[in-house]
Amino acid sequence: MLPPLPRRPVDKVMSWDAAVAWRASAPAPLVFTNGVFDLLHPGHIEVLDRARREGAALVVGLNSDASVQRLKGPTRPVRNTAERAAVLAGLEAVDAVVVFEDDTPQALVQALAPDVIVKGGDYSPDTIVGAEVVRARGGRVVVVPLVPGQSTTSIIEKLRG
What we know:
8 helices; 19% strand
C-alpha cells in the first residue's frame, strides 16, 4: 500500500530532496505545473484544478523570489516565497510545492520526472519548459485555456489606481 499524500499545508512544502523521495512513492500519474503564483486569482485556480484532474498527484514548482525578480522586475514578487508557498500548499488540489531558484523549472522537471505537465493558455505545447522531458518518457503535455481578464499584472495595476 502506498503512503498517503501529505495533507497538512506545512507538510506539502518540500525541499528538492524530499520531493524526489516522495515522488518515488507518490501515486501515478504525477502531474507538474509551475509559476510565480504571486497574487492568487481565478486563472491560477483554474490551472491548478485542471492540472490536478490530469493525474493522481500534483506538484507545483514555485519560482523563488530571486527568480521572480529576474523575470518580472524589481517590484515583484508582491508576496515572498514562503507566503506564496503557504497559500499554494493550503489548496486541496495541490499535493506538493517545491521552490526552484532558476529562471525555468527545467532541472526540477528532470529531477521529478512527472507523467504530465500542465501550463496555462499563454503557453503552447512547444513553449512549455520541460515538455520534452515529459514527452520523452511517454508523458502528456496539457495546456489549460486562460480565464479572460485574469492576471496578476492587471490586479497590481488596479490596486495602484
